[in-house]
């Protein structure tokens, strides 16, 4: 995860690390290198520029130049700024009602159905919840099959209605079943498309309006870089989601999405997917991710 970015940041810092004295010019040059490393990692231009300008200003303002170990101070500053760029603190899910309704949105292939299973498994094994999964993709029978297989694998019930072509009705039926059976979290896996599509957006808006979910999690493939951020923006404008799930961080993703999404849509990353298995899910901690990136 982010090896390339870590290497590049490390190289950019080499000049400063361990030096007894550094100059304003050193700092400016290092920030230029850092900005390049961020852009190479697919961080969007505005974010990268704002970030390095900020670090530079703080570095100069915090007397980094006159401190005993300027390299160390700058590393700490970078760590703090990266953490804040990714949202600062860990953003937990909210469970304000019984059942709590969580709507899952995103494009096809992003990892929605896999995440739906992973989230249910996490809530059951680590948060002591009783989830129900709802298969709300009326276009792909295979998507229902996939969710049922996952449900069996993790021992969590799945509500599906293969006869119905009405996603709003299916979502409502799922919630009614959860109430009847005492399940306290309902996770609704919705239909995606290969690209942003008006019909898909209208459909998911209708489901949102009907069931008033407490959480709307937008799932996006981190490997798609700046596209991930652009897609997030469109979904957020329509759905005003409550959190982001970044999938496939186990691959050789360059990291740009993790670093840009919060500042572009101002919604926290809540989870990261780190593999295909049901256990491959982590709660997102901005501070840990920052330390990881800085190595
Ligand atoms: P959906 O169309 O959005 O429901 O996407 P799926 O859940 O079917 O996932 C698409 C593909 O991505 C599947 O092959 C998943 O196994 C894979 N996948 C999902 N999440 C992850 C992840 O975090 N890491 C990796 N390596 N693969 C993932």
TrEMBL record:
Q: Mind naming one GO cellular-component term on file for this protein?
A: signal recognition particle
Does Hydrolase appear among the keywords? yes
Name the Gene Ontology molecular function terms of this record.
Answer: 7S RNA binding; GTP binding; GTPase activity
Q: Does the keyword Methyltransferase apply?
A: no
Q: What is its EC number?
A: 3.6.5.4
Q: Report domain SRP54-type proteins GTP-binding positions.
A: 268-281
Q: Where in the cell is it found?
A: Cytoplasm
Look up the coiled coil feature and give its residue ranges.
Answer: none
GO terms, biological process = SRP-dependent cotranslational protein targeting to membrane
- Major site of localization recorded for this protein: cytoplasm
* Entry binding sites for GTP: 106-113, 189-193, 247-250
Q: Which UniProt keywords apply?
A: Cytoplasm, GTP-binding, Hydrolase, Nucleotide-binding, Ribonucleoprotein, RNA-binding, Signal recognition particle
- Please give the catalytic activity noted in the UniProt record: GTP + H2O = GDP + phosphate + H(+)
Domain topic, free-text comment:
Composed of three domains: the N-terminal N domain, which is responsible for interactions with the ribosome, the central G domain, which binds GTP, and the C-terminal M domain, which binds the RNA and the signal sequence of the RNC.
| UniProt subunit comment | Part of the signal recognition particle protein translocation system, which is composed of SRP and FtsY.
Function description: Involved in targeting and insertion of nascent membrane proteins into the cytoplasmic membrane. Binds to the hydrophobic signal sequence of the ribosome-nascent chain (RNC) as it emerges from the ribosomes. The SRP-RNC complex is then targeted to the cytoplasmic membrane where it interacts with the SRP receptor FtsY.
What family is reported?
Belongs to the GTP-binding SRP family. SRP54 subfamily.
What protein does this entry describe?
Signal recognition particle protein
Q: Which organism is it from?
A: Mucilaginibacter rubeus
Question: Lineage from the top down?
Answer: Bacteria, Pseudomonadati, Bacteroidota, Sphingobacteriia, Sphingobacteriales
